[in-house]
Amino acid sequence: MKIATFNINGIKARLPRLLEWLEETRPAVACLQEIKSQDEGFPAAEIEALGYSAIWHGQKSFNGVAILVDTAAGYTLTEVQRGLGIPGPNEGDEEQARYLEADVSGVRVACLYLPNGNPHPGPKFTYKLAWMEKLRARMAEIWAEEVPTVVLGDFNVIPEDDDVWSVKAMASDALMQPESRAAYARFLADGWTDALRTHNPRGGVWTYWDYQAGAWQRDHGFRIDHILLSPECADRLEACGVDKVHRGREKASDHAPVWLQLSL
C-alpha cells in the first residue's frame, strides 16, 4: 500500500499538477493539505474520474485537508473524525480545517495541517503548541486502539538541524523553535516512527522550497512534511521518499509529495 502526503497549496490553482501526480505515481492513499477551498468548491468530479474517492474538510481561502483513496484498485474509505476540537488562535475563532481521519482497508490514516506559528512569539505560536498537544492526545487514543496507523501531513516543524539548508537562516522561525521541536520529539518518544528519517538518518532531505529568493533553484529547502507510523505500520515499512521532480514543474506547489510503501 502506497500512502502519500502532499501540501497542494491551493487545489484549484494546482489541480493540473495534482491530477498529473496521481496519474504518474498512483498512490493508494493521498493526503492533501492547504486545499484552500470551501467544501462545495472541492473538485470531486475530476478526482473521481481518475478512480479516486475523496473526503475533505474545507475552509474558505485558507487551510483545508482531504484524503483521496484509490477505490478503483479496491481500497475502501471510511471517515472516522474531522477536527481536533480546538478553536483558532484568536478569541471567538471557530475551529480551523486542519485535521481529517479515516480508515482505509484496515489502516487508520490521519491527515493534518499543523499551524505555522509565525510570528513568534505571539498568539499564533501559542496556538501551534496547543494544537500539537491536542494532536498528541488524539494519537494516544488511536494508539490505545492498536490499529495500524499512519499520521501524516505538513507538520510545520523542522525537527533537526540537518533537516534545513541553513540553520542560521531559519533560526528565528516558529518552525525551528525549541518548543516546536520538543513537541515533535514527544511524538517520537511516545513510540511513533518518523518514516523519512528512518530511511535517511543523515538528514539532508527537503520537502519544501519557498517561492522567493530562488530557493528551488539553489536547493534552499527544509523538511516539514512528515509521516509518522505506529509500531504495526513501522514493521511493514518497505520504502519511502520524496517526489522532488514534481516541485520543479510549471505552477507547482512549494511542497513536494512525500510517500511510503507498506507491505500488507
TrEMBL record:
GO terms for biological process: DNA repair. Its cofactor is Mg(2+); Mn(2+). The active site is at Y113, D154 (proton donor/acceptor), H255 (proton acceptor). The record marks D225 as: Important for catalytic activity. Probably binds two magnesium or manganese ions per subunit. InterPro entries: AP_endonuc_1, Endo/exonu/phosph_ase_sf, Endo/exonuclease/phosphatase, ExoIII-like. The record marks H255 as: Interaction with DNA substrate. The keyword Transcription does not apply. The record marks N156 as: Transition state stabilizer. PROSITE patterns: AP_NUCLEASE_F1_4 (PS51435). Signal peptide: none annotated. Gene3D superfamilies: Endonuclease/exonuclease/phosphatase (3.60.10.10). It holds the Pfam family Exo_endo_phos. One of its GO terms (molecular function) is double-stranded DNA 3'-5' DNA exonuclease activity. Its EC number is 3.1.11.2. Residues 4-255 form the Endonuclease/exonuclease/phosphatase domain. Keywords: Hydrolase, Magnesium, Manganese, Metal-binding. SUPFAM superfamilies: DNase I-like. Mg(2+) binds at N7, E34, D154, N156, D254, H255. PANTHER family: EXODEOXYRIBONUCLEASE III. Belongs to the DNA repair enzymes AP/ExoA family. This is Exodeoxyribonuclease III. The lineage of its organism: Bacteria, Pseudomonadati, Pseudomonadota, Alphaproteobacteria, Sphingomonadales.
